[in-house]
């Protein structure tokens, strides 16, 4: 009877990404397997997002909520025995885990408990999706031959999940969270600094400090002129420079991960045939060229939407 009701009544599927400055929610309404409508919203504060989904879900008899897990304390081991975490140098912390084929994906128990409590007063949390879960879901959809060994990467924001798989058999997993921003900024000297310089003008003038003060003023003038030039140059984009640096760091980490897979006795170390990267945003072509030249592997990229993936996976798991 419940199955019949779910076929008749609309169901609400909610996927959420919580970040420090940008909290995103996507709400999709399905009747049966047919998408009726979909809406995406962004909130500065997570509290506002949670209140929004609480009010929205009140209008539906059936609703399902999924959250993207971006905690540092998570990972994957190519083993079905949780006791093998010691063998893979996993710290002595309380863990929750789930089985994916021949591997375990784990996270700290405290994260599961925290998010369960956080959503308790907002009508509950049904799914907590690790990036490894979304990555492995994509791997299964690729339907690669069993003799094909590929390195798969899942990039969402500033995190990267890596799986090396032979067909659907997992050989290796890695996880990395990168620095939020490189902090590439151009600033003129502050008013406080200028005030200090003005105060220095009142000191006794000697040949040495006169030359020093003159050079400082020339430096200040150069900074002002350079900044004005940069502001007028449409081709100079600090955001693009930041993105390029972030993508280069990502590619360097992939190289490090490949070396670990080849050299660490805990892993099979078999030859990787290629690399497939899933990313929300475009990865800089120069960074891809660098990765290709360093690894001698063919690199393919596919653009994904994490919110859509979570809803897609919820629909699959609830069938």
From TrEMBL:
<dbReference type="GO" id="GO:0008233">
    <property type="term" value="F:peptidase activity"/>
</dbReference>
<dbReference type="GO" id="GO:0006508">
    <property type="term" value="P:proteolysis"/>
</dbReference>
<keyword id="KW-0378">Hydrolase</keyword>
<protein>
    <submittedName>
        <fullName>Clan AA aspartic protease</fullName>
    </submittedName>
</protein>
<keyword id="KW-0645">Protease</keyword>
